[in-house]
Amino acid sequence: MGHPGEHRREGLPSSASVPTSIGGHPTVVETVDPAGLAIEMVCVRDLESRLDRRRLLADEDYVPPYWALVWSGSIALGRRLGREIPCRGRRVLDVGCGLGLVSLAAARAGGVVTAIDREPVPIAFLRASSRRLGLPVAATVADLETEEWERRFDLVLCAELLYESARFEAMAEALDAALAPGGSIAIADARRVDTTRFWEAMAARGFVGTEHGTDEVREEGTLVRIRIAVLRRRKDDAGGVD
Questions:
Q1: What is the pTM assigned to this prediction?
Q2: What is the distance between the alpha carbons of residues 101 and 74, in angstroms, rounded to a whole number?
Q3: For residues 56 and 10, is the Cβ–Cβ distance under 8 A?
Q4: pLDDT greater than 60 at residue 15
Q5: Which structural domains are found in the chain, ordered by start?
Q6: Does 151 score more than 70 pLDDT?
Q7: How far apart are the first and last CA of the chain?
């Protein structure tokens, strides 16, 4: 699977402080979604050559570098930040940030952004992009389900995180715990697995949703429908507090 989104590859400007390799992966600057977001990110050079497709099909223990892909759901959510989904002045958490497209889009839209991922290498890539673009993002290695926050967030962003059904309940609980009173959770769900249990778990915690449309993207001949939804606590909408 290559990059699902649209990219344009650039040469590294001599003035950019981008290392030639991060975590053993050679780097390249790519303009992601030129017709929409147009964010120049530090990405993995020649990513396709680093995916062992034969092993992916034959070896259940093989875990490809999914973090290195710029997923279609990240592009779909990123396009809405600052337009349909306000970011300016809000404390924003990007969960499972990967290379950080959503984080960078939120920072460009004026959000005060914290980005987390379980893997250290994508965090290093995001920090390189943040420095290069002059967009402040506090990127750190962390797990949403175990992290304890000193302050909670006004906006939590989740792009294409719904792929482990066994963790949907724990994820719903952790998202609830990370969200400040009156805050909202923006989710891009490409429904690569059945995500019904996740949405049910959020509803059981009193969350209600506003739909922000469905994007249709063709990935290597397959039509993927990406649902964008923003969730809020029902009691917050009614004026209640935690």
A1: 0.88
A2: 7
A3: no
A4: no
A5: 68-237 (3.40.50.150)
A6: yes
A7: 43
Antiparallel, parallel or unpaired: β 222-233 and 179-189: antiparallel
DSSP strand pairing (25-32 vs 21-22): antiparallel
Beta strands in 48-111 (DSSP E): 91-95
CB–CB of 234/202 below 8 Å? no
Are the C-beta atoms of residues 139 and 126 closer than 8 Å to each other?
Answer: yes
Pairing, β 39-44 against β 25-32: antiparallel
**Tokens read off for 190:** 């490409």
C-alpha 39/C-alpha 58 separation (Å) is 36
Both tokens assigned to 46: 């020649």
Report helix, strand or coil for 134.
Answer: coil
Q: Which residues contact 75 (CB under 8 A, 6 or more apart)?
A: 4, 5, 6, 32, 33, 36, 37, 101
User: What letters, b where the CB count within 10 A reaches 16 and e where it falls short, cover 83-99?
Assistant: eebebeebbbbbbbbbb
Q: Are 171 and 185 in contact (CB under 8 A)?
A: no
Residue type, 7: H
The pLDDT value given to residue 222: 86
Q: What are all long-range contacts of 23-29, with beta carbons under 8 Å and residues at least 24 apart?
A: 23/120, 23/121, 23/124, 23/125, 25/50, 25/65, 25/68, 25/121, 25/125, 27/125, 27/128, 29/132
How far apart CA 107 and CA 97 sit, in angstroms, is: 13
- Mean pLDDT of all residues in the chain? 89
Cβ atoms of 97 and 115 closer than 8 Å: yes
Residues 6+ apart with CB under 8 A from 89: 110, 111, 112
Tokens encoding 97: 């940030």
The pLDDT confidence band at residue 193, using thresholds 50, 70 and 90, is: very high
